[in-house]
Structures are given as C-alpha cells and as structure tokens.
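Hey L., structure's done. Input below.
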Amino acid sequence: MSFFKCTCSILAAVAVFSVAPAKADLIKLTIPTLPAPSLGAFMGPVIKAQKFDEQNGLDLTFQQKPTATYRTDFAAGTDQLGGSGTLLADVALLRDKGLKVTYLFNVFDFWATVVVPQDSGIKAITDLKGKTLTASLPTANFPMFRYLATLGGLDMSSVQLRNADSSALVPTAKSKRSDAVQLWEPAYTILVHGNHDFRSIDVMSQWTDKTKENAFPYLGISAQQAWVDQNKAIIPKLFATYQKASEFIKSHPQEAAILIAKSLNVGAPVIQDLLSSDRLRLNLYWAADNKGAADAVFKAAISEGYLKAVPTDGILYDPRK
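Output:
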C-alpha cells in the first residue's frame, strides 16, 4: 500500500472514530405526529435533512400515526411527546379530563376558510344559511371555525352540516357534492393550486377584530407533565431545533418546499405556493409568551361547548420557571 493510500485510510478511520462518540452522545427522542398532510408533518423532513436536531444535541425520530392512534397513545401516556399537539384537542381537552399535559411551544397559528365553487351564490359567511357545509367535525379546527363564523354573523344551527374525514375534504370539494367545504392548510393549497374553480370565504378577520390578539395558538409540541419535570434541560434544545427549521423555511422557501413536498407526496410548486402565502401561519413561540391569545382560544372553545372551563395553571409551559 502506498504512503498516500495508507495516510488516507488512517485519516478516514480517525474521522469515523471522531464522529461516532458525538452520535452516541445525542439525546434520542421519538416525536409522534399526525400523518401527512397534517401541518405536524411539515417540520420533520426539514429538521432531519438539515440536521438541526444534531446541531442541538438531539437525534429526533418522527413517527407518523393515524389520528385515533396518535391521540389515544398520547392520552394514555404511551407517548410522552406529541409533535402534532393542538392546544385544544391534545392539551386543553385532556386537562379538562384531569390528565396532566402541557403545551410546550407553538409552531403553527390557526388558519381556516370555507371554499365554494367559483360560480356559487355564496359570497359571505352569512350566505351559508340553509346550505350544506361539509367539515371534519371531530377536529379541533372545526369548533374554532364555528366560533369565527358565529362572530361573522352566521347562525350555525341554520347550516346543514355534513361530517367527513379530513382526508376526504379535498375530494368532496372537487366533487361539488356539498355547497361548501371547511378547510385548513395544507389541504386548501392542494385544492386551489393551479385551479380557479373555487373561491375562499373569509372567516379569519373576525379573530383580531374580536380579541385584539395577533397570535392564534393552534398546533405545536405537547408533552406529559411528568416528562417535562424530568427533562427541563432538553426542552430548550427541542425549541432551538424547531426554531432553526422555522428560520430555514422562511429564508430558503424553495429548498424547504422540495423537502416538505417529498414527504407529503405532492408537487414542490404546491408547497412553494403555500410558503409564499400568509396562510401557513408558521409562528414559533413559547406557549406562555402568548397567554392572552391562548386564553381567548379557551374562552372561544368554552362558548362553543368544546371545553367545560378554562384549563388549570401549568397548561402553558414557561421556560423561565
């Protein structure tokens, strides 16, 4: 063996040896998420491709689970963390039932709309009176939409509601079997990208008008309180990982779109469209930093019968405590 080849072999061995301990020192965490195209599945591909978890001393495994399995496993404590944790369904509602869980930090603020065919006579939310509206009624998204629609002057009892699984909402809209369909992202962009057959009916403007809050806490990272108590040193590393991913998506939208689109099994231009809009509502902050907005969400949920009472203290994680 030549001296050059021998030297290269030694250097390669040293490189492997030097990397191995660093890998071994990483803290391994499994982050269950709802399946694509849930917003909870957005961050994982970016985090892993850019190794933002490793840069913060973590080795994250993102595990997609069906909605029922995800929620059952988290409620039972089988999963200590929830990567698609909604402030309402996965934290507040469980607190309502006496379970000790907490909302660590927000990743996506709430956004929703109603879509109707382009030639529909429905021009405003109040025009849904007497019409059929298809929505995924068991989701946390629907009661907040219902609250905003009520603020907009619609008597929801006058609407003929039809329930559908969230995965069926886009096909239902395309089939035009319902007068209107209630959607959120990324389903809305998947439906309308390159398609001018639909119009969107605004409901979001009601939030700021009513609450005077800009933030609208919706989906982020939730955790069992017992896990939080034992892993306070890890939580800032997890936040920093998501923060890097958030910054990357905003500063490199085309590259991020390719990574996300591949995991969602949709075209990259669809995700680029979403990232360039104001609909994604990617808004990372510690849960306790927008307590006023969270309280407004709780009060809205109570008014819709989704919650019985404002959740107990501790639901919003504060890293300063």
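Residues 3-25 form the longest helix (23 residues). The chain has two domains: 3-107+217-301, 113-203.

-- N.
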